[in-house]
Every structure is written in C-alpha cells, then in structure tokens.
Amino acid sequence: MDTPRIRILATGGTIAGSAGSAIERGYRPGQIGVAELLGAAETLGLDAAFAGRDIAAIGSQDIGWPQWDALHREIVAAMADDGVDGVIVTHGTDTAEETAFLLDLTLPAGKPVVLVGAMRPADAVGSDGMRNLANAVRVAGDTAAAGRGVLVVMSDQVFAAIDVRKAATGGAEAFRGFPRGPIGNVTPTSLDWFGPPDRSGRGARFAWPDALPKVAILHAYAGMDADAVGCSLGNGAAGLVLAGLGQGNAPGPVIEALAISGVPVVRSSRVDQGSVDRNLEVDDDRYGFVAARGLGPAKSRILLQVLLASGMRDPARMQEEFDRR
Ligand SMILES: NC(=O)CC[C@H](N)C(=O)O
Fold first, then answer.
1. Which intervals hold domain Asparaginase/glutaminase C-terminal (predicted)?
2. Per residue in 286-317, pLDDT tens?
3. Selection from 158, 181, 166, 176 nearest residue 14 by Cα
4. pTM of the entire predicted model
C-alpha cells in the first residue's frame, strides 16, 4: 500500500501531558499541542504522512458536548477528504470509552478512526505515549481496520469502542475489553487482527444529535435510599442509568422510585464484567426498565442520551438498541 495519510486530531490527555521533569510525580494533561506531537512522531520514521489539528487541550474529565461536536465534525470532514486514509484522535484515558462509543454510534463504517492515549506523561520515564501513537498509526493506516467501528489502541492492543473500558487507574495496561477482549494485537511493526471486520458497509447507526439531553448515573450501594432518584429528577434528568449492584440490582425503595420516575431507566451494573439481562431479579417488564446488556454505566448513559436525542421514548424500542452490537 502507498504511504498512508493520517489526520491526527488532538484533544489533550496524558499522551499530551507533561510533568516538566522525569522524576516529578504530579503532571498536567493536555500540555503538548498537535504540532509538537507530530514533530515527535516524525522522528520515529514511521511510514505515514501526517497532518494534524488541535480540537482541545484538556484532561478528558472535562470533555463534553462542545469538544464532541467539533470532533465529530472534523472526523466527518476527514472521512470525506480524498487526501486522508485514516484518523487518529489523541485523547485522555479517563473518558476515552465515552468518546469512542459516541463516535462509534454516529459515524459510518469507512476509514479507520482510532482513539489513542497514554497512562504516563510524555516526559515520564518509560512513557507509553509515543509507542501507543506509533501503534495507532499502524492501525489507522491499515485498510482492514475500517469496518470494525471506532477503535481504541492502548498497550499493544486494539479494542472495539463497544467493548472497551478503562479498568485500572494506573499502569500502562489499564484497558480491557468486555465482552470481547482485544480484537487485535499491534506493535509499531506488526498488526494481527483476530477476525474479519464485522461492520463493513454499515452506515451510521444514529444521526449526529443537535444536543445531548441530561442523563444521570445513579451508583448503587448497600443501604442506598431513593433520594438520588428525586435529586436527579429535580435537576432535570431526562433519563436515568442505574449503576446497579450485581445484575443491575438496587434496594427495593430505589427500584420503586425508578419505576415511577416518569423517565426512561436503564439498569446497568457497577461490576466491571458481565452483562445485565432482563427480568432476572428485577421485573423489567412490569417496571418498564431497559437492561443494559454488555454496556457499563458510562456507555449506557451515552446510548440513552443518543436514543433520547433521536426522539425515542418507548422502552421496548430502547431495549432493542441495547441488545444490538
Ligand atoms: N491517563 C490519562 O490520560 C489521564 C489524564 C486525564 N485525567 C485524562 O483523562 O485526560
């Protein structure tokens, strides 16, 4: 293949983070702009041609609608540009799963779109940023990366947006995939996919919304009372996601309050692994709840926001979307 032409959209995060010294513990994410990032990437001698754009320079804990809207617009433009073969988004790791999944729901299968981050700042000893970026270049430049949805590259592994979660607060290998683990292994000089693309030719699942409605996540715990439900509704939540116990459970009074909340309710789990299925201990049919299946709370919230933005209200229709992969 000809030298792949990669567009890099920078948003910040630890991959652009700096402590000012290799032995400094504290650091600030989003300190290194795309020009400097590209300069560093050029020195690696990768077989790729780069162009870049700064979308934001933030820790991803601060990401939200304005950055997502800009990012989506830039990626759509890059997909339509004959001079671009693949897109890389540099991103903080804290909310990479949310951004990746939102883009996954709203972009057509076409050119590869790859999110990449780092767990150690650029000037730390053993920084993982440049290796992850080199790996992302390898993936974004591979035509077989298209048709797999939005991808996340971390620690020599490729994850699909629908599976990926940040599963550890520290260490370079902080990302896991559920229910599928990684769908490929990557190094700067190799790329192995574990199967063929599963989304080839698919259009965008949802149109890009005009805005995302307010949806709250309620984290369940032993002894939880129903206050959180009332607070969220009082603050204008248009939907609620329960980060429930085990299979999406919560104490009886919480379930009862959710049932009469008058807004769509998705039951997910605070547990990292496994799915939440319908009508196991909670009678979803009776209460009108939606079971999150394989999606964790953060991604359940994104999907519920997109469904609400599309005008959907019927829990049965919503369940079909949560059942889809
Ligand atoms: N490893 C990281 O990228 C964390 C830095 C920051 N909290 C962010 O998510 O952007």
1. 214-322
2. 999 999 999 999 999 999 999 999 999 999 99
3. 166
4. 0.97
